Amino acid sequence: MTEFIKKIISSSLAVILVLVAFASCSDRQGTETGALEGSVDSTEPALTTPDIYDAKGYRKDRLPEGIDYGGQTVDVLYWNNAKNVEYDAQDNGDIINSAIFRRNLRVSDRLGVNFNWIGEKGDYGQRNEFNALIAADLAGSGTYDVISAYSTTIAMAATQGYATDLIGHNDVLSFDMPWWASDLTDMATINGKLYFATGDISTNYLLRMYGTFFNKQLVTDYGLASPYDLVERNDWTVDRFVELASAFTGEGADPVYGLVHDAITVEALFYGSDLKFVEKDEKDVPYLSDSWKGNRAQDLMDKVSGLCKSNSVKNDSSADEKLFSEGSSLFIIYSLDLAMNYLQNGGVDFGIVPIPKFDASQKDYRTTLNYKYSLYMISKGTDIPDIAATTLEALASESYRSVTPDLYETCMKIRYVTDATSQTMIDHIRDGVSFEIGRTFTHMFNYDTYRTIRKALSGTAESGWQSAAASYEKVFRKNLDDLLAAFGS
Fold first, then answer.
1. Per mean pLDDT, which range of 107-121, 311-325, 377-391 is the poorest?
2. Which one of 85, 91, 131, 204 has the lowest number of neighbouring Cβ atoms within 10 Å?
3. What is the per-residue pLDDT for 28?
4. What pLDDT does residue 423 have?
5. Per-residue confidence band for 20, with pLDDT thresholds at 50, 70 and 90
6. How does DSSP classify residue 245?
7. High-pLDDT (> 90) share of the chain, %
8. How far apart are CA 480 and CA 312, in angstroms?
9. CA 143/CA 75 separation, integer angstroms
10. Which residues touch 102 (CB under 8 Å, ≥6 apart)?
11. 341 touches 203 (CB < 8 A)
12. Is 169 strand, coil or helix?
C-alpha cells in the first residue's frame, strides 16, 4: 500500500470522525495532521495543562471569567455586500448562518454586550464612500466601535489614521492564538503598530483563499497526470500547470480549455511562486524586495503569459465560473467558495489542490486570498476601546470553536467537495496562507502592485516584466516611504 493511499484512507477516517464529533482537523489538543512535503504544519503540540482546552479539545481564550459589561451596546460598522454571510446572521436553518447567529448570541451573553449592526456598502467600488462615513463619524459623535470591510477599504482607513493601534490592547487580543491569521498580523505590524486583523472571525477570510480547481474527468479522458499525484511527488509546479493546461486547444464547436480565468485570479501564481514586492529585514523593517523584479519573476511571467495568450486559455470574467462548472475547462484558479456557490449542484467532478509552486525547490505552497476578504479594526473614535477589543477577541475565539468547524468540516469538506483527498488539500491550502505588504496596502502603491502583475501574467502588458519593473522601482520606493510615514516612521 502506497503512502498516498494510506493518506487517503486516513483522510476518509477523519471525515467519519467529523460527522460524529464536528471536530476540527488542526489546532486541537493531541491532534496530528499529516503534512505534505514543504507544507506548514500548524498543529500545536499537546500541552500538559488541560485547562487551556475545552471539552472538545479546542483552545480556550485568555479572557477572564465573569466579564459583564452590563448590556453595553457595541456598534459594528460592516460591509453589507460581502460575498459570504459574516456579521448579522439569522438562525434560518442554513448551517453557516445559524453558526454565526449562535456565535453572536454566545458572545453577547458571555460579555454582557448588545450588538448594533450597521451595514453599508464597502467593497472595492465603495471604498472611498465607506471611509468617508468613518471620517464623518470621527468628526462627529464617534458612534462606531468596531469596523470591518473589504480588505483594501480597511487598509485605507488604517493609513488615513482612522484606526486604533491593536498592539495597545494585547492584554486581551492574543494574536498568538490559532483564531488569528498570524502571517497577516506579522506582516501588517509596522513600526510596532498594528491597525487591523482577521482570521476565524471572518467567513470571507476562510472562504476566499485561492486554490486550483481541476476537472477530474478531463484528467482521465486525456490521460493526464493527476494534480493529486503531482502534489504528492512535490512536482506540482508552474511548469506542470502550464504543461497540463496546454494539452487543450480551445477549438471546435464545443471548445475545452486548459484554463479559464478573469485576469484577476492569475495573480495567485505570482504569490504562489513566493514572490514579493516588500519584505522585512532582521529588525522587522519593511524594504523593497528584489524578488519581484528578478529572473524568477521574469521566468514566471514568460511561462504564464505565453500560456494565457494561447488558445488553451479563455479570459472571460463574465463566464469563467460557468465554463468550469459545465466541464469546459481543465483548470480554474478561484477562491474556495467556488465549491459552495457554483459547484454544489454536482455538474462537474472536481478536485482541489494548492496554487502550484514555482519549482520543486520551493519549500512551501503559498496561498493568497481574493481581495474580497474582511479585515477588522477598532475605530479611533470609540469611547469604549477596551470593550471593543475584548469583543473582537471573544468573537474570534468563539468563531474558531463554533463557526469554523461547521464551515470547513461540515460544509466545505463534506457537503461541497467530492473526495477525501480534496478535503486534505483544503487543510494544506489554509496552512499556506500568506500576506504581503505591497498587496495588502496596494492603495499606497497606486494599485500598481496588482495591476502590473495581472497585465504581465495575462499577456496584456505592453513591455517585458523586467523592463516594467525597472520603470516602477523608484516610484515603489517612494510609495513604501509614504506607507512607513503613515505608521509614524
1. 311-325
2. 91
3. 53
4. 86
5. very low
6. H
7. 79
8. 38
9. 7
10. 91, 402
11. no
12. helix
Give the per-residue pLDDT at 12.
Answer: 42
pLDDT exceeds cutoff 70 at 61:
yes
Grid coordinates belonging to 199: 482570521
What is the rounded CA–CA span in Å between residue 342 and residue 322?
8
* 143 within 8 A of 75, measured Cβ to Cβ: yes
Of 254, 258, 253, 249, the residue nearest 219 (C-alpha): 258
Q: Which of 385, 454, 370, 473 is nearest to 152 (CA)?
A: 370
Query: Please, are residues 430 and 209 in contact by the beta-carbon 8 Å criterion?
Result: yes
Q: 150-168: per-residue pLDDT in tens?
A: 999 999 999 999 999 999 9
State CA 118 to chain mean position distance: 24
Q: What is the DSSP string of 277-301?
A: SEEE-TTS-EEE-SGGGSHHHHHHH
Q: Give residue-wise pLDDT tens across range 197-218.
A: 999 999 999 999 999 999 999 9
Name the burial class of residue 488, with classes exposed (0-12), middle (13-18) and buried (19+) by CB atoms within 10 angstroms of its CB.
Answer: exposed
**Beta carbons of 362 and 36 less than 8 angstroms apart:** no
DSSP state letters, 307-376: HHTSTTEEE-TTTHHHHHHTT-EEEEEEETTHHHHTSTT-SS-EEEEPPPBSSTT--S--B-B-S--EEE
Q: Is 50 exceeded by the pLDDT of residue 45? A: no
What is the C-alpha to C-alpha distance for residues 173 and 21, in angstroms, rounded to an integer?
Answer: 29
Give per-residue burial for 60-89: e unless 16+ CB within 10 Å, then b: ebeeeeeeebeeeebbbbbbbebbbbbbbb
pLDDT reading at 113 higher than 50: yes
Q: What is the DSSP string of 125-144?
A: GGHHHHHHHHHHHHHTT---
Sorted by where each starts, the structural domains of the chain and their CATH numbers stand as 20-60 (no CATH), 63-206+372-416 (3.40.190.10), 210-368+434-462 (3.40.190.10)
pLDDT in tens, 298-320: 999 999 999 999 999 999 988 89
